[in-house]
Amino acid sequence: MDEITNFNLDEIQCDEKINFILEKRQNFDLNLLKLPESLISQNKPSEEFFMCKLCKNILIEPKECFECEDLFCSSCIKKKIEKQDECPFCRESPFKEAKFNKQLYYILNQMIIKCPFYCEEIFMYEDLSKHLKSCQNIPKVYKCKLCDMKIKIENPDNDNFLLTEHNKSCTGLLKKCIHCNNEFQKMHLQSHMKHCEYKLFFCSICKMKFPGKFRLAHNDFYCRQITELHKIFEKIMQNIYI
Fold first, then answer.
1. pTM for this model (two decimals)
2. Which residues contact 104 (CB under 8 A, 6 or more apart)?
3. Are strands 112-114 and 40-42 parallel, antiparallel or unpaired?
4. How many CB atoms lie within 10 A of CB 51?
5. CA–CA gap between residue 71 and residue 52 (Å, rounded)
6. What is the DSSP code string of 39-69?
7. In terms of DSSP H, where are the helices of 140-214?
8. Rg of the Cα trace of the chain?
9. Class of domain 1-16+173-242
10. Where in the chain is the domain with CATH 3.30.40.10?
């Protein structure tokens, strides 16, 4: 008894109308940001006053070592001391933070910088957080309602293209089973079709096709009856041509 499986899962028609949720834009996490020196437009201070000793970029939420007075981005030094609680340069342990120099804050805040997402805006360093709340070039994150996958889009011009590409492989797409015509998410369709009670089987004994839900009945009763009918029919046909 053979299964009839002449189908390709990827060729099964499906509903391509997927709803995407643009996740609510919150304040951009400064700890994820890097500000290369090239973003400075005006009022560039001396290098020693504004560069992180670890990432070599403009300081973000500066932290100062109490012992050696080296300066770090908050996120950079946090990662270091989580692994080993000491200053990565003077090796003072545990790392002790100094009260940050107000004059340095003033120097940083007076810098004129370009948007790190290249939106053509130029603003003072102290307005960075404010700008990030409204910048249209901050990467968008869409969430697919069907499969919960998050899709990060860094270039606004790629919105439609990337979402369309996701549609092609989304495991949450609804597709119809070719056997029962019911809809299932793509991720579950293969498993369903393997066990669908309406999947057709071919009996090599009685030469009949039947859905899987009638398999037991076919094996216990119908196959024998159909086979007998075939024999009777063959005898009738033989008598006709004698």
1. 0.51
2. 49, 50, 62, 71
3. antiparallel
4. 19
5. 6
6. GEEE----HHHHB-TTT-SB-SSEEEETTT-
7. 159-169, 186-195
8. 34
9. alpha beta
10. 1-16+173-242, 33-121
73-94: pLDDT as tens digits: 999 999 999 999 999 999 999 9
Q: Lowest-confidence range among 16-20, 72-76, 100-104? A: 16-20
For residue 174, give the DSSP letter: E
Give the pLDDT band (50/70/90) at residue 101.
confident
Tokens of residue 206, six digits: 């009685």
Single-letter residue type at 185:
Q
Instruction: Give the DSSP letter of residue 112.
Output: E
Quick one: tokens of 74?
């908050």
The fold adopted by the segment(s) 33-121 is: Herpes Virus-1 (3.30.40)
pLDDT-derived band at 47 (thresholds 50, 70, 90) equals low
Angstrom distance (rounded) from CA 26 to CA 138: 11
Task: Please give the pLDDT value at position 127.
Answer: 92
pLDDT of residue 4: 45
pLDDT at 222 over 80: no
By DSSP bridging, strand 183-185 and strand 174-176 are antiparallel
